[in-house]
Amino acid sequence: MISTDGAEQLSHAIIKTTCDDYAQAYLGFRVAGKSPKSVLKECKSFFEKGTFEILSGGKINAERMMKEVLADSVDNELTTVKELLESPKTPKMTIELKLPPGESNITYRVPPIYVESVLKSLEKTLTEELKKLSEGHAPLAWRNNAV
Count of CB atoms within 10 A of residue 21's CB? Predict the structure, then answer.
């Protein structure tokens, strides 16, 4: 039989994994081979259909948690972009377009003179997104098992 502590740890692990998957899918990354759209749908169902409420003991509002997870992921991206902009070295930037099997992928190296402009544009976009996601609430410490 699983102990109360074990059940709580399992609940926290499930919530954290779902939050991490939700954040990655929101940013457009595939998760465990699934498309971002599919993962977002699964995660939203987890939060909105009661599973989250059961696992969290009803202690945290699911909608607020979803917004906080997204804000945290955007903030992490913004931090990385700022670090790149503050670096004394010019970062190299490559964009790769993966094509279906049998076709050659396309790789584009961003000319060094444009990398800073691309990063500043990304910084502006991330800052605006973070502001929208953070409106109306103080941050949760969901990554620290505050469930």
Answer: 21
